[in-house]
Amino acid sequence: SSGSDENDVVVIGGGPGGYVAAIKAAQLGLKTTCIEKRGTLGGTCLNVGCIPSKALLHSSHMYHEAKHSFASHGVKFPSVEVDLPAMMGQKDKAVANLTRGIEGLFKKNKVNYVKGYGKFISPSEVSVDTPEGGNAVVKGKNIIIATGSDVKSLPGITIDEKRIVSSTGALALSEIPKKLVVVGAGYIGLEMGSVWARLGSEVTVVEFAPDIVPSMDGEIRKQFQRALEKQKMKFMLKTKVAGVDTSGDLVKLTLEPAAGGEQSTLEADVVLVSAGRSPFTAGLGLNKIGVETDKIGRILVNEKFSTNVSGVYAIGDVIPGPMLAHKAEEDGVACVEMIAGKEGHVDYDMVPGVVYTHPEVASVGKTEEQVKALGVEYCVGKFPLLANSRAKAIDDAEGLVKILAEKETDKILGVHIFGPNAGELIHEAVLALHYGASSEDIARTCHAHPTMSEALKEAAMATYDKPIHI
Ligand code: FAD
Fold first, then answer.
1. Which residue of 13, 120, 234, 346 pairs with 285 in a disulfide if CB–CB is 3.0 to 4.6 A?
2. CB 54 within 8 A of CB 194
3. Is the ipTM of this complex over 0.95?
4. Rounded distance from Cα 99 to ligand 1 centre (Å)
């Protein structure tokens, strides 16, 4: 343990924000301690978020392909079945390997790792209740709060992680539910809904808003929803959950139109509540040292990630901005660089967002709705994957690429990709946006053939001129 030796940097929370900040601080030569209460490093993302969800999305996709697509490619099996414990085992192994990997990185970079619950005693001292029942005081010249977020329930719904589950329970069901109701059509609900739909659950998504994933470009969203409907997911939009009855064998939901009106009921074996996440600062003692938060509990910081209390910083899901792992990591690096006296900056307008369904949806920059609202004149270039040779060759051609560029300068404002591997393809666009590239810049860049990346090039051609292949 660090005992009472003073650290240059103390990080509270070992998620993607905290562990990355800790490693970077150590790399910059700062004496660093990271405090984490969970028992394993990696935070929400590695333990109950990004990683286990992507493991199950991949496994369930393989099953679904084997069952429904392999035969048309000439690959035949007498039968295909799901071994759910094995599938969960594969996911758990991935999580265990990655969280242990971060412990290894801490050792390699000489980050001191303290297990336990951290609470502020003063702006430069954190008391840690250790899992063994002991207590330690960790001192630091700079303290970074990276305590992340936690699942949010809805009024009148109690999550028991068995029949009424959060994403955490939905990642660890012991049986495939016959009927799964997903409350909340954000990306987490749609990803988890996809997993169980592929494994055979009848999935109904109930959403209060008129649209799924509200932050998405409207045109892309429409095609995305249609694709999910083809995969047999049902959507009840503009609908609110008015009550939940768990007294019977099945959970009974009472639903009501968002605008009010006649109620209906819906039965489910399992209900997944995915109605957003809240910043997590319970027991941290923010009041004690006077750290300011906003109405929904997010810690307020300036452009240096500094809170109103000198020497206390905050990064990741616990501050405003996109609640994404890669954003938390960028925050962590920039925050520590500035503590070390260097420059650091994160542009939240250029954080890519990905939904890891099949096909995937990935975007960066502005949606068409946002561009319209800005009032700038713009050009749109689109290219369907149906006209992309690689997508056709592998018979996975649902989707499109859409580029928005400023009319006068051709500067790219936003890129939206709906298609297989969109989450990998988007980074060329992220780089383009960072460098202030025009659509012509992408269009005149030689892209390998046959790749799906050519669809981005053709969409760029369509933005300022004409595409070749359609
Ligand atoms: P967290 O990861 O929440 O880490 C905070 C850590 O701090 C936790 O481990 C917690 O135990 C610890 N902690 C809290 N308080 C204390 C304390 N007082 N003392 C000690 N330790 C404390 N994002 C993506 O970018 N891509 C995805 O594909 C993706 N998929 C997701 C899927 C699901 C199901 C969920 C739930 C989330 C997903 N996310 C994804 C979001 C992502 O997990 C978060 O944005 C990210 O984990 C935020 O990182 P963080 O470091 O700010 O906080």
1. 120
2. no
3. yes
4. 13
